[in-house]
Design a protein that fits this description.
Belongs to the endophilin family. It is built from five helices and no strands. With about 170 residues, the protein is an all-alpha fold.
């Protein structure tokens, strides 16, 4: 009732401390930017949406995500197979072997980068959103409910004093 009356402009609302309001605004901003950065980093690390969904499901089921071959590693595999077809002794075959080995190392470095970024960057962001932010939201709801209770009590007290004053004036 108090919340509805406040929204309709029929009841007074106790304002929170300006510093506290600033902290709440900063917390909201932090949450919003953290979500955006987390999503975009996930897109950068795994551009394939269906693979991201699959990884999300594995994570929610607490199962290990199957290891994927990176594009660089796949290209290296094709180059090695092509080199064997052309012959490792031919100039084209030698070149394919060298470039394929470089692609394999690049693919392995990409895999390590994705793993490291996931552990060292994405995990703390997720921990904030799933842990700290949930706590902040819960405490904010509790504070809002307490403030509404306080305002409702103030309104009842005001009505009681007004009724008491009216009763004192009229004999």
């Amino acid at each position: 009732l108090q919340f509805t009356e406040e929204k309709l402009g029929q009841a007074e609302k106790t304002e929170l401390d300006a510093h506290f309001e600033n902290l709440l605004a900063r917390a909201d901003c932090t949450k919003n930017w953290t979500e955006k950065i987390l999503r975009q980093t996930e897109v950068l690390l795994q551009p394939n949406p269906s693979a991201r969904v699959e990884e999300f499901l594995y994570e929610k089921l607490d199962r290990k995500v199957p290891s994927r071959v990176t594009n660089g590693e796949l290209l290296a595999q094709y180059m090695a197979e092509a080199a064997n077809d052309f012959g490792p002794g031919t100039p084209y075959g030698k070149t394919l072997i060298k470039v394929g080995e470089t692609q394999r190392r690049l693919g392995a470095a990409e895999r390590e980068f994705i793993r490291s970024a996931s552990i060292n960057f994405l995990t703390p962001l997720r921990n904030f959103l799933e842990g700290d932010w949930r706590t902040i939201s819960k405490e904010r709801r509790i504070l809002q409910n307490r403030r509404l209770d306080l305002d409702a009590c103030k309104a009842r007290l005001k009505k009681a004093k007004a009724a008491e004053a009216k009763a004192a004036v009229t004999p």
